[in-house]
Design brief:
Radius of gyration of chain A: 22 Å
Helix content of chain A: 10-25%
Order of helices and strands of chain A: EEEHEHEHEEEEEHHEEEEHEHHEHEE
Structural class of chain A: alpha/beta
Number of domains of chain A: 2
Oligomer: homodimer
Low-confidence stretches of chain A: none
Number of helices of chain A: 9
Largest sheet of chain A: 7 strands, mixed
Shape of chain A: globular
Mean pLDDT of chain A: 96
Strand content of chain A: 25-35%
CATH superfamily of the largest domain in chain A: Ribonuclease Z/Hydroxyacylglutathione hydrolase-like
CATH class of the largest domain in chain A: Alpha Beta
CATH architecture of the largest domain in chain A: 4-Layer Sandwich
Number of strands of chain A: 18
Chain lengths: ~300, ~300
Amino acid sequence: MKLNILGCYSATPSVFTNPTAQVLEINNHLFLIDCGEGTQVQLRKHKIKFNRIKHLFISHLHGDHFFGLVGLISTFRLLGREADLHIYSPKGLKEVITLQMKLANSWTNYNLIFHELTNKESELIFEDEKVEVHTIPLDHRIYTNGFLFKEKEGQRKLDMNAVLNANIDVAYYRKLKQGFDVKNEADKLIDNKTVTLPPNPPKSYAFCSDTAYNESIIPIIRHVDVLYHESTFLDQHEKLANPTKHSTAKQAASIAKKANVGTLILGHYSTRYDDLNVFKTEAQTIFDKVELGDDGKVFEF
Amino acid sequence: MKLNILGCYSATPSVFTNPTAQVLEINNHLFLIDCGEGTQVQLRKHKIKFNRIKHLFISHLHGDHFFGLVGLISTFRLLGREADLHIYSPKGLKEVITLQMKLANSWTNYNLIFHELTNKESELIFEDEKVEVHTIPLDHRIYTNGFLFKEKEGQRKLDMNAVLNANIDVAYYRKLKQGFDVKNEADKLIDNKTVTLPPNPPKSYAFCSDTAYNESIIPIIRHVDVLYHESTFLDQHEKLANPTKHSTAKQAASIAKKANVGTLILGHYSTRYDDLNVFKTEAQTIFDKVELGDDGKVFEF
């Protein structure tokens, strides 16, 4: 998986900071997560091919998480997009987007497929051969979901020396990868495990923004490789966190620790702070493996 | 008048080009004209004080002219704005903006006053002591207005030597500026014109984007000091201009010439062209006083 953070600051965009948007790449498949104002320019800046984005996930309908979407949809149209675009978001987004298309008398040539969410329990919202996406119900001022991206268990890998030694015809390689025992050219049944290696362990990524400290997400995100958890505030402003339904860096770290995740990436910083390093320092008093998200940063895992 | 061009490219924003937005300053009063995606960042970049903007004019509801508005309104709220904001736009904008505020459950603390336009004839839409704003009905794919900003005739200026020689009490200076004859300290009636000078000639600015070549605007914009007229295309793509209801640089220049304006500023360039100078060269085959609009350019007149 490759995570490209296009923007990770809260509230208003500025000359140097962008509101939330991320691109997650899994097996050449691009998922866009949130789409604050200016996301299309960030995509261009980071040379991400627009037409590779086929699925888009919006956590909630605060402007810093979706005001860039209508422009992106419109740009896709101007660029002659033909591929379907699936949008997963809280209910209401379809009305906003279609109203603006109606007023502009500009309809997309491609299919725009809205999957509007209302469920307050975690649910499977997307699945293909390689990936599942589940919602992570968050605790924010309006209906908000995080998203859990889970790779499926891959195929077993051929141990080529063993396969050749066992004298297995190439026609059976697919069966071997699928885990079956097969017969070799001498008609002898070969135990799969003697000629194949286990698949790469499937990776997982959880995106959690925006949310108050909320332990109920822990069972959903337990053991993920990477957790992006919002940390709008530092400890000195902890009193602001719960009323605004945001988290501090320490709270994000507590969730990471209790869920036993691999790495915690922080983000959604309030623009009141000049030095991001303090977020890391504070989080590391609770959980060691902390990375600072920042606009333009890429994480591979 | 001071015109600050924040963005003047058509269609999609890119890393180096911004969609339409301009700030016109008249006597310390700021008018924002159109508001493409990213306008709030452009305002910050050019250090324009947000709270000095009290009137906002949207030409039409294509995204490259208003997708930045909802974010700007939301940022005004986050910055604690208290002053009223008046928005002049085609009908429909109020519904778009209020729907998004409703979904976000985020209402402005300041008054948002929509003036929705439907008239197809030119009309006076704003007036204060110093300025009038009239619509300029344009010919585009959807209902579109340009805007004519006209300074009102100012007060006469005191010719201080003459005033002192005529022995006029300071209490009468205001009357003199207003053009009245007044009595001097010897009770003699003084002819206003002998002690005052004519006011500065009032300036005018016409914003015309987006529009096909349309001679019916000429009577409205005749003799303006500065005309901004869209020139989406060069001559080589003239055939695209009318079907898309846009203009070429030469067509913009023809309008400027026929309306006998002071200076023509070009803009709303299609991003297909690399060299803007060709727009100027082509326009100057018809009208001499041509300036190239560009993002970040400031014109004072």
